[in-house]
Amino acid sequence: MIDMVSTWCQDFLGYYEFRSKTLQDECSPEGLCKAAMFALFVKEELESWPEQSTRKRSWLAVSEALGSCRHAWMRDALQCFCKWHEECNGGSRQL
Fold first, then answer.
1. How many other CB atoms sit within 10 Å of the CB of residue 30?
2. What is the distance, to the nearest Å, from the Cα of residue 92 to the centroid of all Cα atoms in its chain?
3. Could you tell me the residue range of the domain that residue 30 belongs to?
4. How many CB atoms lie within 10 A of CB 35?
5. How many domains does the chain have?
6. Are strands 5-19 and 32-45 parallel, antiparallel or unpaired?
7. Which residues contact 18 (CB under 8 A, 6 or more apart)?
8. How far apart (Å, rounded) are the C-alpha atoms in residues 19 and 26?
9. Residue 61: inside a domain
10. In CA terms, which of 5, 14, 36, 66 is 20 to 30 Å from 76?
11. Quick check: 18 and 73 in contact, CB under 8 A?
12. pTM metric for this prediction
């Protein structure tokens, strides 16, 4: 996802654990994964990126993004970002 836009890392938000069907192997038959989440400031939206044949880019309102999260850990991560963003903007909820 990072290659879709030119970004500047703002802050580390936390780790989120999840199960991956595609990463199951003899070392991790359960497919346990740990993702590090960062808040990024988008400086530029790129016209092309390496994974554009397999990934779709779309910009959503937070409420719409929350509704389209497939897993609880994704909603948790987005809610963590919203809290971080609100704190950075002195209580303003302009997302």
1. 9
2. 21
3. 2-88
4. 13
5. 1
6. antiparallel
7. 32, 33, 35, 71, 73
8. 15
9. yes
10. 5
11. yes
12. 0.64
Which residues, other chains included, contact 7 with Cβ-Cβ below 8 Å and sequence gap of 6+?
40, 41, 42, 43
Tokens of 57: 């880019």
Please write the tens of the pLDDT for every residue from 6-44: 656 678 888 988 887 776 666 666 778 888 888 888 888
Map tokens 């069907």 to a residue: 21
61-71: pLDDT as tens digits:
988 999 999 88
Residues 6+ apart with CB under 8 A from 13: 37, 38, 39, 77, 80, 81, 84
Q: Is residue 93 part of a domain?
A: no
Helices in 2-71 by DSSP H: which ranges? 62-67
